[in-house]
Amino acid sequence: MGLILNKSSGKSTGLTPAELDAVHECLTWGRQPGNNKVLTFFGTVFESFHNACRTLMGRFKSVLPEGCLRARIRATRRESHNPKEGSLADTLGEEAHGMVVVDAGGHPMKYDALTIMEDVVATQTSRIEIDVPGADGRGWQRTGSYVDVAADGALNEQWRQDMSQGAQHLREETYVHVSEPHYDAKVWPHIHPYGTGSMLCEPGAGSPHRHARNRLALIQSFFRKSAMWGFWFLNRMIVAELFFTNKKRQAAGRSGASTGKEDDPITRLYGTAQPSSIPESTE
Asked: What phi and psi, each to the nearest 5 degrees, are found at residue 209?
C-alpha cells in the first residue's frame, strides 16, 4: 500500500473520511503481532540481527583500516584467559572452529556463513578475533585484537539470541525454492530492478531457450559478461529438459524413467535417461 503525501501538509490528498478510516484500520491491523510478516522481518528480527552485528563489529572498529569493506571473524575455543604452559589449550594453539567473512557492518557476505554465525559465533563460548585483508587485498592478516564473548558485558544472552534468531530467520525467509515461478528474478534481483523480468512472469511467456536468447541479445551486457549467470541458466535448461523427459517416459512406461520411490532424489525427479539434445551427454 502506497500513499502520495502533500509536501506542505504531510497528508494524503483526495481521501474521503471513510477511506481515511479504512487506511487507519489497515495500519492498525498491520501493527498487530503476526499479521504483517514483512514488518516482522524488517522491523524486528532483521533489525535486531543488524544491531547485533553492529555491536560485534564495534568492538573492532579501532583496528579496521580506513575504507575496509570486509573482514574475517575467527572464533576459537579458549577455556582460560591464561592457559598453563603445556596445557591442552596451549598445545592446540587455539585452532579456529569457525570463520566468517563479513562486511564492514558485520553481516556475513555468503549465505552459508549464516549457519556459522548462529552455531558458533552466537551460541558457543568463544574468543572472537578479527582478521583484515592483507597487502593488495590478498589473503588475510591478523590484527591481534580479540573479544572474549563470556567476559564482554555487551555480548550478553540477549545479543546471542538476536544473532541466532536473525541468522535462522534469514536462512528460512530468503530461501528461494526451485518451484518458485519467479525463480530467476529472485536469485538475481540486482539485474531485475524494474519488475520480475522472470521467465514465467506471464502465462506462456516462452521457453528457457527463448528467454536465454532474449537476455543474451539485450543491450544490457551483464548477461553476456557473467559466466556465472551463463552456467546457471545452462544448468536450468538441462534440469528442465531432464525433468519433463522423465515425465514423458513415465507416462509412456519406457525404461529409464523413475518410479517416484527411489531413495536418490536426483533419480526420483529426473530418471536415468539423458536426452540426446543435452551437450556432452552419453546419448
From this structure: -65, -45
Do 90 and 82 contact (CB within 8 A), yes or no?
no
Band of pLDDT at residue 125, cut at 50, 70 and 90: low
255 near 273, Cβ under 8 Å?
yes
More confidently predicted of 231 and 197: 231
What CA–CA distance (Å, rounded) separates 59 from 65?
14
User: What are the residue boundaries of the structural domains of the chain, listed by start?
Assistant: 37-81+90-173, 206-270
126 Cβ contact partners less than 8 Å away, ≥ 6 residues apart = 75, 76, 77, 78, 97, 98, 120, 149
In whole numbers, what is the pLDDT of the chain averaged over residues?
A: 80
- Residue ranges in the chain assigned as alpha helix (H): 17-31, 37-40, 46-58, 88-92, 113-116, 157-173, 183-187, 208-216, 222-225, 227-252, 265-270
